Amino acid sequence: MEAKQEEPRHLSVDHESLKEPRNRKGGWITFPFLAVAILGLGVATGGATANMVVYLIKEYNVPSVDAAQISNIVSGSISVAPVAGAIVADAFFGCFPIVAVAMVMAVLSLVMFTLTASLPGLRPAACQLGAGPCEQASTGQMAALYAAVFLLCLSAAGARFNQATMGANQFEAAADRDVFFNWYFIFFYASSVLGATVIVYLQDTVSWTLGFGVSCAASVVGLAALLLGARYYRQPPAQGSPFTGLARVVVAAARKRKVSVVASEELKFYYGQRRGDEDVKSGGDDVVTPSDSFSFLNRAAVITDGDVDDTSGSVLRPWRVCTVQQVEDFKTVLRIMPLWSAAIVLSVAIGVQINFTILQALAMDRAVGRFTVPAGSMFVGSLMAVVIFLGLLDRVLLPLWRRVTGHTPTPLQCVGLGHALTVLSMATSAIIERHRTATVRAHGEEGNPAWVSPLSAMWLLLPFAVAGAGEALHFPAQVTLYYQEFPPLLKNTATGMMAMIVALGFYLSTALINVIQRATTWLPDNMNASKLENLYWLLTVLVAVNFGYFLACAKLYTYQNIGK
């Protein structure tokens, strides 16, 4: 499984490389524009979503568990949308046009959020304690809110991970791309920290209108920076839909299921329309040959009568024969899918942890001196841990690892360590919740949903910090793995793979909570009467079992490109 790794790279920009020839596109000269665009979009998105649970509860009178569920669905939608954006960029337009339009959508979304906060007619009347049932939001009011969310999803679809691919496309050297990916995640998480602290603080202590307004201004600055750098960007053309070729492999292999590929020396494989007839039908020295893994797919590249024009070598029946390269590309995707699937449970656990930790914080003492920490800002502990741990990895931990072991850790080793830390994080959340409920019982306040435990909510930063350290290990490592291992035509889709993982995690976490609500009494609307500790222990077990599954998949995986 291990492959020879390159020397570690530091998060430092080679200023000499900024001196690009004037007629040359790409390179580090594009970095400042992309950095501001990433920061602007991140602050805008964070400002709109970090405090969503509190916004729904306080301004739309939504019950707490329902608010957490809605927030999960919104987060899942924002996370899955980039997959569609990556496919469109790969197939039709390239990255830059898609990212530019997406950032316009971000501006429009934040305008809508600002309007929902500033116009009383777009929200139900404030809920008064002891004055009877709270007024529910009307269909029109919820439609205005969901319109803002929809525009935010469109923004995420086009920009969230296409920004990463667009940045990587500016560099030819793998070393420069690795440095950019590290910087991308630092800016991505740093902007999320700003959104979850500064913007949430403004929303909670000044006004929701000001908070959303500042987010809107950040999106405008990001859009302006992106457009100002347009003349410097390298913009590779779209290559057409890569999924057509993958689909052809499945169809061709199925249609030739009776063709035997055991005696492959007696068969001719199609390598594409090349210089001469022998190259077309048997491949040259510089082309890939059919591999033995998933050998049943090799029949898709076997030439049978009528598949290929004998004179020109062009395909006559494209859904009956594929090139060997297309078959091997499809195999690459199949090989990596088990590793990809192992990250889904991680995302489920983290999605549950994020939203229920906010609900815990609302029922705990959030005072730090004279300052009260907004509940929606608790997640910043995870984001800050990611940023800090990424810096420690680059400057301290990776050099130390190299001195001790003699090589740089592989992406799979980093992902595995991230899995282990996530198990520890879930167990830590369960232990803290046990202490919180103990204070509730000690004061006899199980029946009082408004009672606030004297236990400091700062304890909730501990599991978030551990989860953030794990995310700093497994998230960038997975993006690197997919980007470098996937076929060239699937580079945008490769970075979108993480978006699909995060989205599935949020959606499945919503489904998990629904099942638990129906099957148990763990999660009433009153947090002081809940048995949230049981949920955290369940997540601990699920993540631990999933860690074993990941280790089995990693043991069987062989790197295709990393280290070559």
Automatic annotation (TrEMBL):
Q: Which molecular function GO terms apply here?
A: transmembrane transporter activity
Instruction: Give UniProt keywords alphabetically.
Output: Membrane, Transmembrane, Transmembrane helix
Subcellular locations according to the entry:
Membrane
GO cellular component terms given for this protein: membrane
- Output the InterPro entries linked to this UniProt entry: MFS_trans_sf, POT_fam
According to its record, how does it sit in the membrane? Multi-pass membrane protein
Q: Which family does it belong to?
A: Belongs to the major facilitator superfamily. Proton-dependent oligopeptide transporter (POT/PTR) (TC 2.A.17) family.
Q: What is this protein called?
A: Nitrate excretion transporter 1
The record lists the organism as Triticum urartu (Red wild einkorn)
Q: Specify the taxonomic lineage.
A: Eukaryota, Viridiplantae, Streptophyta, Embryophyta, Tracheophyta
